[in-house]
Amino acid sequence: MNKQGGMSVQMKKVLTYLEENLEEILMVILLGAISLVIFAQVIVRLFGGGFPWAEEFCRYCFVYTGMLSAGYCVRKGVGIRVDAVYGFLPKPLKLVIDYAGKILLTAIYAYMAWGSIGLISITTNLSTAIQLPMKYVYMAIPLGFGLGTIRGVQDLILFTKKTFGNKEGN
User: Fold this and answer.
1) How far is CA 164 from the centre of its chain?
2) DSSP label at residue 169
3) Cβ(72)–Cβ(23) below 8 Å
4) For the chain, what is the radius of gyration of the CA atoms?
5) Rounded CA separation 134/128 (Å)
6) What is the pLDDT of residues 97-124, one digit of tens each?
7) Closest CA to 98 of 158, 148, 150
8) What pLDDT score was predicted for residue 167?
9) With the C-alpha atoms ordered 14, 19, 21, 27, is the resulting torsion angle positive or negative?
């Protein structure tokens, strides 16, 4: 068995692929599930039936998709910024603003992830149609912000290396 640093090469490729695409994979699965359930609901309603849980299921999938997009947006470098003034600033000031923004965003994500854990621990109610414990729905909050925090730290490390790293290539 070919090993590299105690881990097989195939396992390292799988983990690298997941690290680069985790949010996308999960969001595609969730949006696919939403599409299939809504399509099935429309077909069944044509014949006078329906799934009482379909709307609730789709809503929860949508919530998870939205929360997972936080990490995805950080990883892809897409965020909200007012470019009207930013474009006229000198490059050193742009770097400071970018760095401060990345630090602030990562800190907010970490705060939200940590703060939302308490909500899960005190939640005891069930969803209406599915009878799913709501704590599983609320887990989207620390999961999404937690992934956003991890991606934010990764982004800060890469940005720091790129911007302030050794210019000699070492």
Assistant:
1) 27
2) -
3) yes
4) 21
5) 10
6) 999 999 999 999 999 999 999 889 898 9
7) 158
8) 57
9) positive
Q: How far apart are CA 120 and CA 145, in angstroms?
A: 14
Q: How far is CA 161 from CA 98, 122, 156, in A?
A: 14, 41, 8
Length of the chain: 170
What are the strands, taking DSSP E only, across the chain?
Answer: 3-4, 7-8
Say how far apart CA 60 and CA 33 lie, in whole Å: 11
Model pTM score: 0.81
Check if the beta carbon of residue 125 is closer than 8 Å to that of residue 134.
yes
Rounded CA-CA distance 90/103 in Å is 20
pLDDT digits (tens, 9 = 90+) for 123-133: 899 999 999 99
d(CA 86, CA 96): 11
Tell me the CA distances in angstroms from 105 to 1, 125, 156, one per residue in order.
Answer: 43, 32, 10
Q: Give the torsion sign (CA, 100, 74, 65, 80).
A: positive
The alpha carbon of 162 is separated from its chain's Cα centroid by a whole number of angstroms, namely 24
* Residue whose token pair is 């490390």: 157
Do the beta carbons of residue 58 and residue 34 sit within 8 Å?
Answer: yes
